[in-house]
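Cast an eye over this sequence plus tokens and walk me through the fold:

***
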Amino acid sequence: MAQNAALDIVVLAGGISHERDISLRSGRRVAGALNSLGHRVTFRDPDASLLAFLSENRPDVVWPALHGASGEDGALRSLLELTGIPFVGSRTDASRLAWSKPAAKTIVARAGVATPASVVLPKETFRELGANSVLATVLDGLGVPLVVKPAQGGSAQGVTIVEKADELPRAMVDAYTYADVALIERKVSGIEVSVAVVDTGEGPEALPAVEIEPVGGAYTFDARYNAGETRFYTPARLDETTAAAVAEAATTAHVALGLRHLSRIDLIVDADGVPWFLEANVLPGLTETSIMPQAIAAAGRDLGDVYAALALAAIADA
């Protein structure tokens, strides 16, 4: 298919996850960028009529902009694979692996990237072994500070930084609000960075890392999506050697997890310049305050051109 041919593209956004509103914002941005290049874009909220619509209309490609479980856990992607319609983003198996933060940590660590010491605790563990003894063992083994997060999910929902031991029980309750399994990590101090990785057919490329400095001290849901709540530095304020190590860690994680087309890899760079893997996102935020659009701009590229190139890559991969 010619690079400049107009495509029929269905952008999926919304869904029923906790991140619905963010997905709608991402989807509108993607649709707008593709429309600006003359592509024929249909904006769809996934619902009971979606699969019939796709079957009847057979677009050239589907561009999912769905955050949270509805778009990133692999379920919808498995159905898209069955339709035979090309779609942008990782395939089902890779999505499932990245959606599980503990699984992603294990796979990326085996590929040689550092990741914080952690423990994974389903709700059932507390009932079986008793909350007090479980939390005491966690504190003895990992100490504080800690980061507690749902084992699945995004946008920092249900994430708590625990500075004192007595804050841990509340943090567990918050994490369990979003998932039945919690991941507790030893907090690594350093510079928080996110790296957008794109692959339009010539292999994964790490775009300039974005340094994240939340005004309130923590990169919460509000800090991610409300303008003025976070200072971003693009490219990140890293020396050349550290920036190269960060890029290598991000691409290594992307490849180890089997991700495709685009991802965002979140890392902490410690005082020695070592990047520590935190998590991978198969569909990073694409809103006006999100990391990936900032990284694309820092690389001197046009959003529409990149999004269209990803659509063409999806067609080529089908």
In short: The two ends are 13 Å apart (CA to CA). The chain has three domains: 8-89, 96-114+188-317, 118-186.
